[in-house]
Amino acid sequence: xxxxxxxxxxxxxxxxxxxxxxxxxxxxxxxxxxxxxxxxxxxxxxxxxxxxxxxxxxxxxxxxxxxxxxxxxxxxxxxxxxxxxxxxxxxxxxxxxxxxxxxxxxxxxxxxxxxxxxxxxxxxxxxxxxxxxxxxxxxxxxxxxxxxxxxxxxxxxxxxxxxxxxxxxxxxxxxxxxxxxxxxxxxxxxxxxxxxxxxxxxxxxxxxxxxxxxxxxxxxxxxxxxxxxxxxxxxxxxxxxxxxxxxxxxxxxxxxxxxxxxxxxxxxxxxxxxxxxxxxxxxxxxxxx
Length: 289
Ligand SMILES: [Zn+2]
Fold this sequence. Notes:
Blueprint: H1 10-19, E1 28-32, H2 36-51, H3 63-69, E2 76-78, H4 92-102, E3 112-116, H5 119-122, H6 125-136, E4 142-148, H7 156-159, E5 163-166, H8 175-189, H9 193-199, H10 206-227, H11 236-245, H12 248-266, H13 271-287
Parallel strand pairs: 1-4, 1-5, 2-3, 3-4
The protein binds zinc ion.
């Protein structure tokens, strides 16, 4: 899978990779995010993936990819609200037209994609029920992508037929988490072990531990981005301190450890054992030559 033209965070990249295991998109997908731009960008990426014919998809350069990128691909439709709807909703009439169209084989690519933006607002209950018929007998090689802020607003019958992908507001972690994560990052650099151990106490509360680990991953990703002439988005000061100190390989290893720690937290490991383990691992990586 080729993410090079897109700036998804690693958590999203992992989720997308898991989504297309086996090489095919699910026939119906809900992307839930408060960030409409981020969900539209992901829908664009997935539709490129669906139509691209290169080995490493989406290649970004084949005719299908180029047309998809420019929103000019005949097999990818971003369905606008019904032009007669004053409240910008979809209509039964539109849904009937889409149902007819979806069973017709694609024009140029091997798959078709329909994207519904703002689906939790634009798909009324009546229209969702019409949509349901389509999802019950999904046409071959078609993917419906529903973008919404809150998937709970959609009928449960729709949700149960879709794969739901939740994008965390990963580029805007809360400040408290970011601060705790920055302290851990400084602890990684510090020669004094107790500084790292002290900072890792931020993981003691299970509810906030995930947010701290995600923020730490963001900072580590930023540091790696700086080493590739990219930009830091979360905490540029801490990221540049890390990038001055660690190689990209070390940053990646530290990043992976955060993921391993998150899994352990979900498995309810003893938190003080976890922080001791994490402290040892962080320091082993930080200080090994
Ligand atoms: Zn391509």
